[in-house]
Amino acid sequence: MKDQKLKTLLNKPEVATWRSVMHCFKTVFTYLEQGLVDDSCSVSRFEILFILYFEPKTSAVDLSRKMHVTRGNISTFLKRVENDQLVKKSIPEGRKRPVYELTPKGRHFFEKIFPEHIKRIQEICPTLSPATIKKLNSAQSSSHS
């Protein structure tokens, strides 16, 4: 009896939408992740390079917030990209904590892989209306409040 009641919930339009969005997310993520791996780049590495390319001199705390990972995770990620000489840290005058930015090698690497990543996005992602994008973005920001 309970099983049937729960199954009827699957017929609700919002649930069908959610299931489709989740399936789409997994499909797109897997495809884009494999493309990055083919470019010798993990998703975490790409996210750090992406953020630092467009927002240089970002703190580890800000990186962890933007990437939705713990401070411990971001420390591990940053050590790896620093060891590969893609990122460097510095402590600006008047601050206690370091900020991070791409090295020339990091900029070159990102500039090499980013256009291919965008091509893959264009291959697999549909174009959504501005209203749909606004609704999705407002749902995301309200869920984090």
Q: Can you tell me about this structure?
A:
- The protein is mostly helical and 145 residues long.
- The chain is 70% helix and 7% strand.
- The protein has a three-stranded antiparallel sheet with strand order 1-3-2.
- The chain starts with a helix and ends with a helix.
Q: Structural class of the helix and strand makeup? A: mainly alpha
Bulk shape: elongated
Q: Unreliable runs, pLDDT <50, ≥5 residues?
A: none
Could you give the order of the helices and strands? HHHEHHEEHH
Helix proportion range: over 70%
Q: What is the number of beta strands?
A: 3
Strand order of the largest sheet: 1-3-2
Q: Kindly state the mean pLDDT as a whole number?
A: 91
Distance between the termini: 37 Å
Residue share in β-strands: 5-15%
Count of individual helical segments: 7
Radius of gyration: 19 Å
Summarize it:
The protein has about 140 residues and is mostly helical. It contains seven helices and three strands, in the order αααβααββαα. The chain is about 70% helix and about 5% strand.
List keywords for this structure.
single chain; 145 residues; mainly alpha; three-stranded antiparallel β-sheet; 7 helices; 3 strands; 70% helix
Write the layout of secondary structure elements.
Layout (H helix, E strand, L loop, with lengths): L1 H8 L3 H26 L4 H12 L3 E2 H8 L3 H13 L3 E4 L8 E4 L1 H21 L5 H14 L2
Antiparallel strand pairs: 1-3, 2-3
